[in-house]
Specification:
10 helices; Rossmann fold; 24% helix; 2 domains; alpha+beta
């Protein structure tokens, strides 16, 4: 397909050189291939469910709203957006994501803009010092071959032909395995040698990227998306550039983190010296601000209310029978076999055991020791929370022997 675009006389000789045809101004009409017309491409990934890492509450919603904002507010063609979440046809496992990222980062041309958005867990392997983005099937015993390596992603972004590349990472969440969570500042520095790249990360240093469960979104992603709806158009000129977006989230995120959570969260930006001008993240349709996105559906009231469950067992339990990982605030359950004590007590996937009889529990062996000490007492109380932060208490009782 051919499209007529106007071009000034003095730029005619530049077409065969380094000047992008889509950047030519309007004086004469020349024929330019449609593939040379400036486009925006987006890779949007949000992962909540993990086999061996804590489940997140809002990452999938963040990705969905980001993709929806691009298409409805910025009129980016849906055919130019790869969206992968737990609820899409393509699933966010390692093999699928590696393959799809390879394919999609080869699509942009030299005139185009690439947006790469990731919401999920990031991991750091202390054994080799490398960083990774966790996929739904990441195996902690083999992170190298079951995750998206930052080094690999850096190479993929380096090969991408897009003149503007904007990488947005909301992945330094709490609950990652002890000693293996990402440092937001180091993460942005890992991409410093990629041509034409601007990186925005949700927090710096050893801060945590918070999930704002009342909004059912990550705190950073919530304000990021509000900004892209036009609130970050500070000039205003109908365009949201990276400077405006960074200034906006750098004001809103720390304010909200302190007011709502009593902690610090400060977004980080990295702009490489070879980035030309100030890249535009999104052009508002019609050049006007859009209404803020509607609030996401909250979890049902039954899931939000604290619960106390009483379970009577026929005999003292030797173990709960759970498969779990040690996380920063307890034991994250990722399996409870049929017929196990855990199944009978309703202790299952994505719940975190935080306390037993009011005492913090940090390891499976410690939990089993507590069960052994309770045998003659005839009861034990287990406190858990789920990925929405809902606290639940399970009281197990049995006839002492």
């Amino acid at each position: 397909m051919l499209r007529i675009v106007p071009v000034p006389i003095f730029t005619m000789m530049a077409i065969a050189g380094s000047v992008c045809p889509c950047a030519l101004a309007q004086e004469r009409n020349v024929v330019v291939e449609a593939s040379s017309i400036k486009q925006t491409w987006a890779v949007v990934i949000g992962i909540q469910q993990y086999q061996a890492a804590p489940r997140l509450a809002c990452a999938g919603q963040d990705a969905k709203l980001f993709a929806d904002t691009l298409s409805t507010i910025g009129h980016v063609s849906r055919q130019n957006i790869l969206q992968v979440t737990d609820n899409t046809l393509l699933k966010p496992n390692c093999e699928t994501l590696r393959r799809q990222i390879d394919v999609w980062l080869a699509k942009p041309g030299e005139c185009d803009t690439l947006l790469f958005f990731f919401s999920g867990h990031g991991l750091w392997n202390p054994a080799n010092g490398r960083m990774y983005l966790a996929t739904t099937d990441t195996r902690l015993e083999d992170i190298e071959h079951s995750s998206l390596g930052i080094a690999r992603l850096r190479e993929q972004l380096g090969r991408c032909k897009a003149s503007n590349k904007i990488l947005i990472l909301d992945c330094c969440h709490s609950g990652a395995l002890k000693g293996e969570s990402l440092d937001g500042e180091k993460l942005t520095k890992a991409f410093e040698n990629v041509t034409g790249l601007v990186t925005l990360a949700s927090c710096k240093g050893n801060q945590v990227s918070l999930e704002w469960k009342e909004k059912y979104q990550g705190l950073f992603s919530y304000w990021l998306i509000r900004g892209l709806h036009g609130e970050a158009d500070l000039v205003p000129d109908g365009k949201i550039d990276v400077d405006e977006l960074y200034r906006y989230v750098s004001e809103k995120v720390p304010q909200t983190a302190l007011a709502e959570f009593g902690v610090k969260q400060t977004p980080v930006r990295s702009v490489l010296p070879d980035v030309e001008g100030v890249p535009v993240v999104l052009s508002l349709a019609g050049g006007v601000r859009a209404p803020a996105p509607p609030p996401a559906a909250n979890p049902p009231p039954s899931a939000r209310n604290p619960r106390v469950i009483h379970v009577v067992l026929e005999a003292p339990p030797e173990t709960l029978g759970i498969r779990c990982s040690e996380v920063s605030d307890g034991l994250l359950i990722f399996g409870a076999p049929a017929g196990s004590v855990a199944e009978k007590a309703g202790l299952g996937y994505a719940q975190t055991i935080t306390h037993v009889d009011g005492k913090e529990v940090t390891s499976l062996s410690e939990l089993n020791d507590m069960l052994a000490r309770a045998r003659d007492r005839g009861s034990i109380t287990i406190t858990t929370h789920n990925h929405f932060g809902v606290v639940r208490t399970v009281e197990l009782t049995w006839r002492p022997k």
